[in-house]
From TrEMBL:
The keyword Nucleotide-binding applies. Residues 23-254 form the ABC transporter domain. It comes from the Eukaryota. This is ABC transporter domain-containing protein. GO terms for cellular component: membrane. Transmembrane segments: none annotated. One of its GO terms (molecular function) is ATP binding. SUPFAM superfamilies: P-loop containing nucleoside triphosphate hydrolases. Keywords: ATP-binding, Nucleotide-binding, Repeat, Transport.
Length: 291
């Protein structure tokens, strides 16, 4: 069995058989030719309808690049992805009609009001006036912005602007919704409001949520996919990942033979009360470890 540090190690748990993949990524590779940077490295992954999949990884792990490929903003170097059965290489126009996206940075018009934004994007997707009005009322209520509906977005707080950007991704009954770090930089209250919005609108949609917050990934994600350096590290439910990979931490203590000096701790006087450190070397299981 491969060790977790091995680049090919990617424990995954198969989802229930009744779930249908809304997005399927197959051997996706993206290399930026101007720097020879391999941003996505042979990624294969499924995202399922009716679920929120947390796309977890550090900055530069390849989350945004993958999402940009799925939305057609960037072409893949090799490999492909299928969204609702359509191939991103040949059917991107059809894909965009059923997709909503919230990028890392808000794409809002300063002089338009909250309700004008929902109206604009709804009509852009070809909705009738009656349906746009109905969606506008529902989304404004669900985002907690009815008192700001006629306020220009330049006068909104950062949290309110972010909630509006997330809401826009759901306009037009988007069946696939891609959210790139939707809660980054927002206040705790707005963050909680965005969470509630996502959970309410999850049904019947394939939602991909990129984040680097562990608590957010666990709370919102039916499944969590962790990537690093463009590779899939593991994928499954939070419960599966905890059981498979363990919880807690390990503390490794290193000593020198000469008494009184511990590497990184300095003079003997600084380690009084840690005499056991000088007599042992090894691993200390954390308080949350199951081992």
């Amino acid at each position: 069995e491969l060790e977790p540090s091995h680049p090919g190690f990617a424990p995954q748990r198969e989802p229930p058989a009744q779930l249908q993949p809304g997005v399927s990524i197959r051997n996706l590779v993206k290399i930026y030719h101007n720097s020879s940077l391999v941003a996505v490295n042979g990624l294969s992954l499924d995202f399922y309808e009716g679920q929120i999949t947390s796309f977890l990884g550090h900055n530069g792990a390849g989350k945004t690049t993958t999402m940009s490929i799925l939305t057609g903003l960037l072409p893949p170097t090799s490999g492909t992805a299928y969204i609702l059965g359509w191939d991103i290489r040949s059917d991107i126009d059809s894909i965009r009609k059923t997709m909503g996206m919230c990028p890392q940075h808000n794409v809002l018009f300063d002089i338009l009001t909250v309700e004008e934004h929902v109206w604009f994007y709804g009509r852009l997707k070809g909705l009738s006036e009656e349906r746009v009005k109905a969606e506008m009322e529902q989304l404004i209520q669900d985002t907690g912005l009815p008192h700001k509906r006629r306020e220009q977005t330049r006068n909104l707080s950062g949290g309110m602007q972010r909630k509006l950007s997330v809401a826009i991704a759901f306009v037009g009954g988007s069946r696939v919704v891609i959210l790139d770090e939707p809660t980054a930089g927002v206040d705790p209250y707005s963050r909680r409001s965005i969470w509630e919005l996502l959970l309410k609108y999850r049904k019947g949609r394939t939602i991909i949520l990129s984040t680097h917050y562990m608590d957010e990934a666990e709370l919102l994600g039916d499944r969590t996919a962790i990537i690093s350096q463009g590779r899939l590290c593991c994928c499954g439910s939070p419960l599966f990942l905890k059981a498979r990979l363990g919880t807690g931490y390990h503390l490794t203590l290193v000593k020198r033979e000469r008494f009184g000096t511990v590497v990184g701790l300095g003079k003997p006087s600084s380690v009084q009360g840690l005499g056991w450190v000088l007599k042992s070397q090894g691993t200390y299981p954390g308080p949350f470890s199951s081992r």
